[in-house]
Amino acid sequence: MTNAPNVRLTGHIDVPADRMAAVSAALPLHIALTHEEPGCLSFEVTKDPMTAGRFLVAELFVDRAAFDAHQTRTKASEWATITAGIPRAYNIEEVPT
Length: 97
What we know:
By secondary structure, this protein is α+β, with helices and mostly antiparallel strands. The chain has a single domain, classed as 2-Layer Sandwich (Alpha-Beta Plaits). Helix content is 35%, strand content 34%. It has 3 helices and 4 strands, in the order βαββααβ. It has a 4-stranded antiparallel beta sheet with strand order 2-3-1-4, covered by helices on one side. A hairpin with a 6-residue loop joins strand 2 and strand 3 (54-61). The longest helix is centred in the first third of the chain and has 17 residues, at 20-36. The protein is globular.
């Protein structure tokens, strides 16, 4: 029997200057709620030291079901409202466990 692969998301979100305060204020709760999700192995959002307004995102979930549950929760969250329309560039891949 093989284990299901982990799901990893990497990329960034580019926050406009006029929305930075609201996004920065909402980010700690978004991170905390994600860490509490079943199947979350890691979740990091950090400021990019090279690009103003850019946050680097790195997520790792135990399997596709856990990742999909995270996406569903996030889409219905305050985070989704606060970050609506902000450009994101993400790569999602399955990685062997």
